Amino acid sequence: MSLTLEPVDGIGEVRPGDDLADLVAARTQLADGDVLVVTSKVVSKAAGLATTVPRDELIAAQTDRLVARRGPTSIVRTHHGLTMAAAGVDNSNTEPGTLIPLPPDPDASAATIRRRILELTGVRVAVIISDTAGRAWRVGQTDIAIGCAGIAPLDSFAGRTDTYGNLLAVTAPAVADEIAGAAELASGKLGGRPVVLVRGVDPAWLSADDGVGAGALLRDEASDMFGLGAREAAVAAITGDGPVRGLPADDAITVDDLVELALRGVTFPRQRVSITGAGVTVEAGDDQVVAGAVAQRLTSLGIAFGMTIGVQVVTST
């Protein structure tokens, strides 16, 4: 397989109400089997989603639940099921003072562009909606497919054998993501070319209908081993509250806050836990086992929040 990737020139600034399919069809010669990679930014612009709503409010509106927060950076799970910094809200490549959220249904956006291309040109293409995302275990970002139509997002190798005859069980290249990443290299982050024409993809990946969409690439919460940051996982486990829905206020955490978290769901009197500076004393009384558990909870929470807390358990006299 030999791929060619060609950015579509001349699209210019996309405005609310613009027909993206028409903009593309007027500027390049399309053929059956081509793949168009379209940035989510211009999809949102064409849909009139640019806004001057304050950033925190917009992120909160796009957030299903908080995954992790460190300082000003919030990693959240969006209502789409995507895990992204700032819910994908972006202020790059847009007019000063405005913000762009992700399209509400990227798979539907991809399908709409695909059908419109067919209507305008008679050509059957696949469409990928791309956006930039980080990776939990690596530095840097790459473009991924947040929506697609007419192309399989995954190519499952289950049941095939490798060159050594080993049976493959779970290998499934995320071809839509890989194409999105390659397209970003071709267009350039600062090139102002939001659409890339990809030619030469394996015909086996293409479908006559819209297909399952990029939603098939999303892990459900039950199978997501990175569904919470280390700090948030510790709080969820200790309090028993589970993941925090929505986007809570970014308040500074104090030792007193950690005490309240440690006591949540535990029958132990708050008045028997005293704070002196950065130290905490737990008065055991007749509940030495529970007091020890509270002390361990406090120690674990301190580690999770990067706070050095001296915790001691004392027996009442």
UniProtKB/TrEMBL annotation:
* Top-rank taxon: Bacteria
Q: Does the keyword Metal-binding apply?
A: yes
The UniProt entry, under InterPro entries, shows:
F420-0_g-glutamyl_ligase, F420-0_gamma-glut_ligase-dom
Checking Pfam families in the record gives:
F420_ligase
GO MF: coenzyme F420-0:L-glutamate ligase activity; GTP binding; metal ion binding
What does the UniProt keyword field contain?
A: GTP-binding, Ligase, Magnesium, Manganese, Metal-binding, Nucleotide-binding, Potassium
Looking at the record, the residues that make up the Coenzyme F420:L-glutamate ligase-like domain are: 11-49, 58-200
Signal peptide annotation: none
| E.C. number | 6.3.2.31
Asked if the Swiss-Prot or TrEMBL record annotates the protein with the keyword Transport, the reply is no
Q: Which NCBIfam families match?
A: F420_cofE
Read off the PANTHER family from this record.
Answer: COENZYME F420:L-GLUTAMATE LIGASE, PTHR47917
**Protein name in the entry:** Coenzyme F420-0:L-glutamate ligase
State the organism named in the record.
Answer: Aeromicrobium fastidiosum
At the highest ranks, the source species' classification is: Bacteria, Bacillati, Actinomycetota, Actinomycetes, Propionibacteriales
